[in-house]
Here is the input.
Amino acid sequence: MRQLDSVAWTGRWKRRPAAEKLCLCLGVMTVSLAVAGPGGQVLIFALMALLTVGLAGVPFWTWLRALLLPAGFLVLGVLTLFVSVGWAEGEAGGGVTLALVPPTDREAAVFVGLRSAACVSALVFLALTTPLPALMTLLRRLGVPRDVADVALLMFRFLWLLFHCLETGRRSQTARLGYASRSRWLRSSALLAAGLLPRALDRGTRMDAGLRARGYDGSLATLSSEERPSLLRLGGIAGGVLVLGGVTAWIG
Here is the structure.
């Protein structure tokens, strides 16, 4: 997660308006869910890969690593759709039976996987090109309560503190040969887990004290360096989404 945010902050499209990237993401997902067939889903995935890696300048291996975790869930989900679980009655009693679903159901399962992969590629594009504060600022403008957006930012920051404490603790234990053997590995892992939450809470308390010392009044104002949304670009995005919908509907 930290790497995703770092890529978003240092990427080529970090100053592009979050509203435009969100509209593109939602438009592509709408086409995927409402219009596209199997071939269209593959086209959408390839298009989002081209936008993310080619135009936005995200490193290919970073993009691929961002897709690995959701891809694992998708593969497991599709495989479960290939199997039918039943109950067979017999002379010696009943039992659970496993069988492959009919070919039409297998085709439907593959289509669900392709559609999910296309939508995930759009979300990964948004995550790798848009810093979280920009999204929170956009949500405030769209009417999301300020307190909800501020709590989301604080929770995100606290997760950063938690991961930072985990990394520094593990690095320190590794330097002291805390993982040289299995017994040391178990002991070091237990010590790290026991001390992680108190250290993170202490860092969070200090963060709260720092905010109050700087005049925190319940609102987390963030500076934005992104460009202003352009009606011309938004129109181009809308037109591109419509063209994509037509092409995917034609491909099937």
Summary: Residues 150-215 form one domain.
